[in-house]
C-alpha cells in the first residue's frame, strides 16, 4: 500500500447513485478538515453532473468527472488516496481490485460483492497486495447494536446457545427493492446478500463467531408476476407517465422527489435504467420471503427470517444463553399510511423519515431467577439509519476512536456475504451448505 501524501486524504467516489450522497456530504461538510473529495467516476455522466450541482449548493467546487472505463487513470490523475465504492453491487469487485492493485485504500458499500468468484477475487487481491478494504456495515454503528455487543461481551446472558432474528420490511420500503436493479439476483445477490448481509454481519460481530453451516428456504411469494394473484397489481411496466400507476400504493413517483428525478429520471437517456418499475411486473428473480438456520463456530445456532412485504417495519432479536435471555425489539414505523402513495422510506433517500411514522425500541435482559431488567436505550435518531451513518463516517473518514472494532475488514465482509450466498445455494438445492466449501470449491 503506497503511503499517503501529507495533508488531507484525497477521496474519489465511484458510483454516483443515491447512496453516494451520504458519503459526499460527510466528506465535504463533516470531515473537510481531514478529507478532500477530488473526483467522481460513473457509467452515467448525468448522475455525476447532478452530484456536482449539489456540491455547489453545499458551497464546494465541482470535482472532475470520469467515465467508469477511465477509473484506473483517474486514480493517478487525481492522486487519489482512498476510493469510496458505491456502485451497483455486482461491479464492486472491479473497482476494489483495481484500486488495491494501484496501491489505494478502499471503503466499499455493503455487500462487498455478490457471488463467490468475485469474493474470492477480492480476498486474493488483498492477500497479494497487503491492501486495506473496509466494508461500510453501518448497522454496527447504531447505538442500540453497540449496546447489545457490550452486554453480550460482558456475559449478560452467559454462554450463547442460540439467536432468533426476525426482520420485517414494510410494503413501502420492501417494495422498493422490486422496482430497481436489486430485483435481478445477478446484480444484487438477492435480499439474502444485499439486505441480510447487514444482519448476518451483526450476528457474527455480536457472537464473535463465524458461520459454519447454513440451511435455508426462500421464495418469491408477494411481488413479481405471480404476485398478481393477490389482487394488488396494476397494468403498467413503469410508473412514470402511466395513468394506471396514478393511485397505486406500490408505485414510485420519481418526479415527486427532486433528488431521485435528477439521479434517475433525468439520466435515463444515457443508460436506459428505470428506477420505477412495477413491482408486479415480470423479471423479478429475487425472493421476498426467506428463512435461514445457521450454525456457528462456537456451536451457537441462529434462526433468521426476512419478510419484504410486512404491514410494519422493524426487527426482533432474541439471544438465549446459559444465564438468561436478551430481547431487542425495534419498531421503525408501525404502519404504512396510504397517504404516502408514491413515496419512499426515508432511509432509501438517507434523509428524514416521514413525520407520521411511529417507532420505538426496547432492550430487555431476562436473567434466570430474577426479574427482567429494562436496559436504557439511546434516543432514536430519524437521520441516516438511526444516526449510524454519521457515526460510521466519523470512524471511516474522520479517524475517530473505534474501541468496539466496528470497522469491518474484507474478511468480515466475506463472512457476512458467504452466509447469504450459502442461503441462496440452499434455496436451489434444498440441502445444508458448509460455508467453507463455497470458497474452496473451484
UniProtKB/TrEMBL annotation:
Name of the molecule in the record:
Gfo/Idh/MocA family oxidoreductase
Residues in Gfo/Idh/MocA-like oxidoreductase C-terminal domain copies = 149-434
Q: Taking every annotated instance into account, which residue ranges of this chain make up the domain Gfo/Idh/MocA-like oxidoreductase N-terminal?
A: 10-137
Please name the InterPro entries in this protein's record: Gfo/Idh/MocA-like_OxRdtase_C, Gfo/Idh/MocA-like_OxRdtase_N, Gfo/Idh/MocA_Oxidoreductases, NAD(P)-bd_dom_sf
Q: Which organism is it from?
A: Micromonospora tarensis
Q: What is the lineage of its organism?
A: Bacteria, Bacillati, Actinomycetota, Actinomycetes, Micromonosporales
Family as reported in the entry's similarity comment: Belongs to the Gfo/Idh/MocA family.
Amino acid at each position: 500500500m503506497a503511503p499517503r501524501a501529507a495533508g488531507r486524504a484525497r477521496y474519489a467516489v465511484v458510483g454516483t447513485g443515491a447512496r453516494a450522497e451520504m458519503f459526499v456530504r460527510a466528506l465535504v461538510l463533516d470531515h473537510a478538515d481531514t478529507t478532500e473529495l477530488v473526483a467522481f467516476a460513473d457509467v452515467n455522466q448525468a448522475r455525476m453532473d447532478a452530484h456536482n450541482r449539489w456540491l455547489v449548493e453545499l458551497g464546494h467546487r465541482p470535482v472532475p468527472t470520469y467515465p467508469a472505463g477511465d477509473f484506473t487513470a483517474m486514480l493517478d490523475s487525481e492522486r487519489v488516496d482512498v476510493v469510496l465504492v458505491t456502485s451497483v453491487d455486482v461491479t464492486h469487485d472491479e473497482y476494489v481490485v483495481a484500486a488495491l492493485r494501484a496501491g489505494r485504500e478502499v471503503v466499499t458499500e455493503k455487500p462487498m460483492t455478490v457471488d463467490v468468484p468475485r469474493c474470492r477475487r477480492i480476498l486474493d487481491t488483498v492477500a497479494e497486495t497487503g491492501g486495506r478494504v473496509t466494508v461500510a456495515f453501518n448497522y454496527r454503528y447504531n447505538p442500540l447494536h453497540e449496546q447489545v455487543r457490550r452486554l453480550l461481551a460482558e456475559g449478560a446472558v452467559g454462554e450463547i446457545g442460540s439467536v432468533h432474528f426476525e426482520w420485517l420490511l414494510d410494503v413501502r420500503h420492501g417494495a422498493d427493492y422490486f422496482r430497481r436493479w436489486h430485483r435481478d439476483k445477478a446484480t444484487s445477490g438477492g435480499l439474502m446478500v444485499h439486505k441480510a448481509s447487514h444482519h448476518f454481519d451483526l450476528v457474527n460481530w455480536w457472537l464473535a463467531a463465524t458461520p459454519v453451516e447454513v440451511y435455508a428456504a426462500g421464495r418469491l411469494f408477494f411481488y413479481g408476476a405471480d404476485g398478481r394473484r393477490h389482487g394488488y397489481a396494476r397494468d403498467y411496466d413503469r410508473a412514470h407517465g402511466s395513468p394506471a400507476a396514478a393511485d397505486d400504493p406500490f408505485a414510485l413517483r420519481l418526479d415527486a422527489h427532486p433528488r431521485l428525478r435528477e439521479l434517475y429520471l433525468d439520466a435515463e437517456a444515457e443508460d436506459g435504467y428505470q428506477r420505477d418499475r412495477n413491482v408486479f411486473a415480470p423479471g423479478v428473480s429475487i425472493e421476498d420471503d426467506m428463512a435461514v438456520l445457521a450454525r456457528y463456530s462456537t456451536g451457537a445456532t441462529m434462526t433468521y427470517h426476512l419478510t419484504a412485504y410486512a404491514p410494519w417495519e422493524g426487527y426482533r432479536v432474541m439471544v438465549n444463553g446459559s444465564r438468561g435471555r436478551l430481547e431487542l425489539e425495534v419498531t421503525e414505523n408501525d404502519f404504512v399510511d396510504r397517504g404516502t402513495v408514491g413515496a419512499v422510506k426515508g432511509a432509501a433517500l438517507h434523509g428524514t423519515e416521514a413525520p407520521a411514522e411511529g417507532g420505538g425500541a426496547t432492550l430487555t435482559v431476562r436473567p434466570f431467577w430474577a426479574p427482567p431488567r429494562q436496559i436504557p436505550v439511546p434516543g432514536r435518531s430519524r437521520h441516516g439509519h438511526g444516526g449510524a451513518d454519521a457515526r460510521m463516517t466519523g470512524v471511516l473518514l474522520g479517524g475517530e476512536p473505534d474501541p468496539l472494532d466496528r470497522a469491518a475488514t474484507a474478511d468480515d465482509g466475506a463472512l457476512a456475504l458467504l452466509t447469504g450466498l450459502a442461503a441462496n445455494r440452499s434455496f436451489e438445492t434444498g440441502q445444508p451448505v458448509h460455508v467453507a466449501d463455497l470458497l474452496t470449491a473451484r
